């Protein structure tokens, strides 16, 4: 298919816990099954929090990458 | 009645495997204890956990329309300015802003009817964070089957 999946970027840089997870949850509530959410964050707990959030809501962590200035987590929505 | 509405809402998602519940009994009236209330309520609500907060004891003073300055426990009072500064530097939201976020995501906050009576507080004396004034039995029924924290 020529179409690419809709990807929403959520910028939660500089926000402390539980800000990034809350922003993720808000994007999730607006999402549809099949959507991809890309979360940017700088909170040091965000990697474990994203994995916990995904396990709890039964969605998929596609990747979590450490970049120089932020962590980028990509999630695929399987359950709404 | 608020409790009945909350009950009906709960009934709709009780069949979901991922559904789980967190009950927080907020008793302490010192400013430091309100931070974990905000953080845990917001984080749990963000994880699609059903959150019920039962406010009782001195914690009721944090929820009145007439604002009360919440005290710091004396043993940590010397550290309070540094903590406030650190929270600001780390962009940590205030506890009430965090609780409001939790409520936007579905959390419910109830004031204890007995302690409200003891402190001379009526429903109209509470700010918009309080959804209803309920008794202990109603709260315990809400909390049943979930995790409960006492702060």
Features of the shown structure:
heterodimer, A: 80 residues, alpha+beta, Translation Initiation Factor IF3, four-stranded mixed sheet, 4 strands, globular, B: 151 residues, alpha/beta, Hypothetical Protein Ychn, Chain: A, five-stranded parallel sheet, 5 strands, 41% helix, disordered N terminus
Number of helices of chain B: 6
**Percentage beta strand of chain A:** 25-35%
In the CATH hierarchy, the architecture of chain B is 3-Layer(aba) Sandwich
CATH topology of chain A: Translation Initiation Factor IF3
- What's the end-to-end separation of chain A, in Å? 23 Å
Structural class of chain A: alpha+beta
What top-tier CATH class of chain B fits best?
Answer: Alpha Beta
The strand count of chain A comes to 4
Biggest interface reads: A-B, 18 and 17 residues
Measured by DSSP, the beta-strand proportion of chain B falls in 15-25%
**Order of strands in the sheet with most strands of chain B:** 4-3-2-1-5
**Count of separate structural domains of chain B:** 1
Our Rg estimate of chain A from Cα atoms comes to 12 Å
| Oligomer designation | heterodimer
Arithmetic mean of pLDDT of chain A: 94
- Named at the architecture level, the CATH assignment of chain A is 2-Layer Sandwich
CATH topology of chain B, anyone? Hypothetical Protein Ychn, Chain: A
Low-pLDDT regions of chain A: none
